[in-house]
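Please check the following for our workbook:

***
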Amino acid sequence: MELPKFLLGDNTDFPEDIFIIHLDYPRFIINLKDDEVEFMEEAEDLDEAELNAEMEGLIVLANEFYDREMERYEKE
């Protein structure tokens, strides 16, 4: 099975929050309510500078994903 790079999620325990889940390495969840990032695994092969640089790009991609999903949702 091929998994998407990002998933959009919500949770009834957190009704005001929207989450973007990144399923590729390094796996993480972004809470769009406060932009908090929670890693689901340690990025062992990247030093802190590399991880920060990669995360900046991934957060941009996550935001673009969210924007596309919202556009698709609004069309329906």
Remarks:
- The longest helix spans residues 48-75.
- Strands lie at 6-11, 14-22, 28-31, 36-39.
- The helical segments are 48-75.
